[in-house]
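Let's practice the habit of predicting before peeking. Look at the sequence and jot down your guess about where helices and strands might fall. Then scroll down.
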Amino acid sequence: MAEFTDAHSALEFLETLNNKNCTIVSATENGKKRPATIKDLQEMNYETIINLCDLLGMSDIYQEGEKK
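Done guessing? Here is the structure:
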């Protein structure tokens, strides 16, 4: 997953990723492409949200979830 250097880019990525017209594919271990699963989408969203939290100085948002 790409590391974003600004919130605008991260939010653009999330908008594209979650747009109903977007077709998402994931690579398997052998490099073949397959349609992304809901779990794949959740992981992409979560990684980007963590990146956004770090950019905004709000890492406590996801660190609280790790303590549970």
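How did you do? The CA atoms of residues 16 and 22 lie 7 Å apart.
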